[in-house]
């Protein structure tokens, strides 16, 4: 019976040693664990065209010297893995979950595929995770919710499908949430408003549906939000909070309806870009919008907006690009547009604008693109249009514009497209047309009242591909020299 005393002691010893073993596997990981994890990753890479891992990830040197690997200075454990743009193909092994000090994982711009192993949920120190531009598929794992330190999450450009897991909405340190260009669907969760550190929200180019939750405009740290190219419906939620950091809102190409909320702009002092094109928005352009004096880009085109273009538009003196076309806007082009000295693109096609083009637009010397086609404009083309040094594209087709074409337009060395089809323009083309148009590609003058000879000098416009003079009263023949222009299609006129 004396031996029985030893049994409990033996049991204690066994328990103790198994405790030690479990303790050691759990906590006593070291740089060798990291090496094993990275070698497991290397083994899963089945295409490495530049032989980066094949030659560099060698056990002869410490993992801390391997390409794309960084270690902490104190504890000498792997803290960052950056394999961005190495053209690697492969899958992610569960061993990666053993890199317990990993704070940054960037494997964007490769061809990794499959899904991430759940063991990665152990990476509690992760601050930065980018898988962008790979071929990962399946659903976004709900265990991403365990990355409580995460600041940047980028899964854009993969094949993720399904909904946004609600667990993502508990990552209170998240600053960047980038899920664009996937196949995600369902509603944008209301709980996204919980992300009180969020600065950049990129959900564009998916199939999200339903309403835009008003909670997204309740995140006071937002800098940029892009929900374009989805199937969102309903109206734009009004902004109730001073989001003094918000610089960009892009809701292009959804199915949004209703009015643009009139008081939305009371709270957006830094807004630089507002893109609402390609929806079904109605009502007038709200006057409040013109408080956003930092706006550089305003795009409201392709909607059902009505009423006039308010003269207050002249307040937006930082504007570089203004798109209001394909709406039901009426009235005249406000001359206050002449205040917008930084304007490069002015695009107002296919509305019901009347009256003459204000000549002050000819003072906007930064203009590159002017698009007023398909309106009911009358009067002349302002002579100053010939003085726009950067002008590249001029579209005035399908209006009732009369008078001459300002001769100096044919001297604008940056001009590529001149489209004046269907108007009542008259007069001659200058005899040296083409001599100073090295970039001209398209000259559309059809259905006007132009007359005179077709200048031989046009053959100097060596990039010209379309010359349409049909439906005018030109006399004589098409000069034979035009045959020197390769690829030229001539529409209208008789050949010599
Ligand atoms: C691996 O790449 C790193 C970084 O480019 C370099 O410093 C190191 O010498 C390379 N090691 C080997 C064995 O090629
Ligand atoms: C990743 O690819 C994108 C698109 O091809 C490119 O714009 C970006 O610069 C690349 N980023 C890196 C870090 O290689
Ligand atoms: C990646 O592959 C593409 C096409 O296979 C090639 O054009 C590109 O230069 C490669 N990039 C690198 C960094 O090797
Ligand atoms: C690391 O992870 C793998 C797979 O998840 C596991 O088999 C292995 O035992 C882990 N531990 C070490 C120390 O490598
Ligand atoms: C997160 O992404 C933003 C925007 O690209 C960048 O400015 C910031 O430095 C990133 N944060 C971290 C922790 O890398
Ligand atoms: C997140 O948001 C939801 C809905 O808005 C709310 O009910 C919940 O309490 C929030 N959770 C946290 C952790 O803040
Ligand atoms: C906005 O946030 C406030 C306070 O954080 C909360 O009381 C309110 O319900 C939120 N509104 C929306 C629409 O989420
Ligand atoms: C919004 O916040 C900014 C910066 O904090 C401040 O200058 C501005 O007056 C505020 N606007 C409103 C309407 O409260
Ligand atoms: C969005 O609008 C388009 C065109 O009006 C329509 O065909 C489509 O069914 C709409 N989609 C949704 C989700 O309402
Ligand atoms: C236009 O700008 C002036 C100051 O430059 C400002 O007082 C006025 O309120 C602005 N108008 C609108 C409609 O925002
Ligand atoms: C436009 O420029 C002309 C000179 O080209 C100048 O006389 C006129 O005052 C300018 N108009 C405006 C509104 O600035
Ligand atoms: C066009 O430019 C040329 C060369 O700069 C100049 O000789 C000519 O007078 C100009 N023509 C017009 C109409 O401005």
UniProtKB/TrEMBL annotation:
Its main location: membrane. Keywords: Cell membrane, Leucine-rich repeat, Membrane, Repeat, Signal, Transmembrane, Transmembrane helix. The keyword Metal-binding does not apply. Residues 291-396 form the Disease resistance R13L4/SHOC-2-like LRR domain. It is a single-pass membrane protein. Residues 32-71 form the Leucine-rich repeat-containing N-terminal plant-type domain. It is found in: Cell membrane; Membrane. One of its GO terms (cellular component) is plasma membrane. Pfam families: LRR_1, LRR_14, LRR_8, LRRNT_2. Residues 1-27 form the signal peptide. This is Receptor-like protein kinase At3g47110. The lineage of its organism: Eukaryota, Viridiplantae, Streptophyta, Embryophyta, Tracheophyta.
